[in-house]
């Protein structure tokens, strides 16, 4: 044999739907076979999808997995390597990979390194494996690793000592900014160092707050990248191993994306998968004339198409004419259904009802929140009536400091920009505008000073530091977990830092009730930042 | 020496506030000394409190812990055994106990068994210890264990083989129904079996969704209970070891509580601790005339006093006169501030604004939700203006099947009955009424058929099965994690079971945005039931 062909199935499972996933796996295996692949590699836990969370504890997982095996055994003439839940007779449960050919199981591998930090909770569900799996096929020696395993030098070195030529790595590695390139760069070094070919197959698709970018790849033992799959796309990729050259033949590879393209496409896929897999016919969102809702609108349209997107402008006394015009203009440029709903009568009816209780109390944030909640309730009414999902439009900077109204602008099932800092919102808006001849987001939406328009002449910067300063402090505190003292020592104003950190700490209760949204940073306000609400911690040194 | 005295500090830490906790520990140690105690035992992780979650990852935990040690070293003439975060120089972090006397550290113990299931995530934060700690003092041989350790027969037997006479167990063991008695019954057997005295000190207090009941105890190696501390009370308890008898002298012990008393007091403590530790001046809640809000009101009053509780009735067209009367009567009997806010004008203004969008669409749940959201917004307005925390009043049965309105009746910071099934709500109402001569909850609130009053003549049982059936199905599905097939085979109607399970599965998105509330079951909708929102799992066999 002069060569063999490996298919990397950059696969998008529907979490928990083992039956459908397995049908898709069979189809993909047959398709790979038609294209003369000898081996097909699926991602980590492909049968149930990642992360299935407590579905892994359901009593029938084992029975369903056994049925999946039966069905997969019908596939002939191709070696399938796929992730599954391995429940053994002694009551252990493993995050495992099976190597199957013509209905025979050639080997089972149990993941050895179980991540239990950041967004990962694998020790809640799985036991650790302690053995390597090596199989020879077509005169070539393969090893199998699962995700975290390949980041443990110790594990990889042990495997290499078994004279493995190619390691098949099954992954469900969540996206964060720069991660696609980071994985490749790290494993290029590793492949060279230990003289092994690395075939890295990653899950693709959005799952709740997690984005799996795919971005699968093949690296030769020289460190050369033989294949780089597109990000955010479910597809089969193929590489040929040439025996004479002892290397995988380089095929045309997807170029690495610029940062803004990478983030934008991540948000688009996450939004599409959330909407479609939850079965919503479309989405609805409030357009304020500001940049956050404008960007959310563009992402929604790119995700599911303009015909499935409804936008509503809900002006009040403090809404400027510019905002109304810009909202209408955005909707027009994007081609979505657009409506205007004045909220004066609603806010007035609330105020009249509350007046006897409020007495002579001076106006404060209460009145501002009433506006936001009138809007939230209108959006929910439209959502309830026609079934569209409400997208909330707040960004990470706002959510961090609580500059948002619970049950108001926080209303919604999916918060598209939840993990996007305001400074990045601006960049993404410019990026999106660069994609078409006519800017879909009117220029002045990007250039005018941000305002919540809940008070006369209000500007965000009246209550918050400038966004570049705010975001830098937030990044240091949240992503880098730096102390208050440390951040002040970097040169930021002491009072500003103290205020920002206090706001972050105090607003955990708000974030806890917020919609989920796609994670693009290394520390989103989601499953990886677990702070108590009642909390006596005092920032300081 | 004929005897020595051990103090069990049933301690209520403020999570994350190391400085305040340590000051309290010093005071309690000094108080114990005054009462001639030779040893004082604090709970697990007493310095930072349990669970501190990702506060454990803050960069200054080590420095703050070092400061805590310095302060504790000032305590003289009593042995202190306390839980703390042990960060070692090799970068490991342990859930540890220190034995300290006169400023000297006599020993450090690192917890060996780290729970990482249910509500526990200890493997996210801690490394496992591998060594026992035994110390001799006053001619007596003591061992130290931390919480989960004592449930591992293997660990306890190893310790017993070191000829330990008394084991000091430091705990942060969360409450669930029946747990106080269960702990004692299990450890009575163990104490006899391995011939060891068990001194069990538990944390007390509410922390977000978790309730620590205290209920500390001492069991002699005969299995005899020498001390049983009161539940839900922060206090020092003392036992004397009599050398001649080789046993702790039995002291008057708190009687075990009846189930309803146990649950009721748990909810009262949880509510008090949440309100007070979050710094709210009081609470506000909507009274509907129904049993859920009536019970929530009673718990709130018992927790923080009638003068800090504000109740509002918000009637609409479908609200019966009985409901208005009963709400007013409840408020009067409990002595709380009461107001009525009609929501007609608000609902009308919403409908008028939405009419152009709705067209001729028939009325459905949308209109019902508007009523609930008008009420939620009113409560939030009053909360924003005067600072009181909104208590939400929904129960577990409703929340399970989504019989509640997001941003409507789900509004609030703390959901007192979140983990209380409707059938238990009835029992708790009767229990509370039994405590005073005049029933605080009018009888007909308990006896009339439950209704959300969102449609004319609506009854809960129009859309849901009878609550005893519903709760039995929910219990089997949620608490016992049984399959749909299994539940049907128990004799429940197939269609009903399928409908209920579908509702539970579909409403994860709602629960995810709900307020936290105190956990009293073995599977609350909180940190221990982690289901994906986007989820293709199909119930079945």
From TrEMBL, chains A, B:
Gene Ontology CC terms: cytoplasm
Residue ranges crossing the lipid bilayer per the database entry: none
UniProt-recorded Gene Ontology molecular function terms: ATP binding; glutaminase activity; NAD+ synthase (glutamine-hydrolyzing) activity; NAD+ synthase activity
Pathways per UniProt: Cofactor biosynthesis; NAD(+) biosynthesis; NAD(+) from deamido-NAD(+) (L-Gln route): step 1/1
Record keywords, A-Z: ATP-binding, Ligase, NAD, Nucleotide-binding
Limits of the CN hydrolase domain: 4-243
Keyword Cytoplasm in record: no
Binding site for L-glutamine: 117, 173, 179
Protein family according to the UniProt entry: Belongs to the NAD synthetase family. In the C-terminal section; belongs to the NAD synthetase family.
This protein's name: Glutamine-dependent NAD(+) synthetase
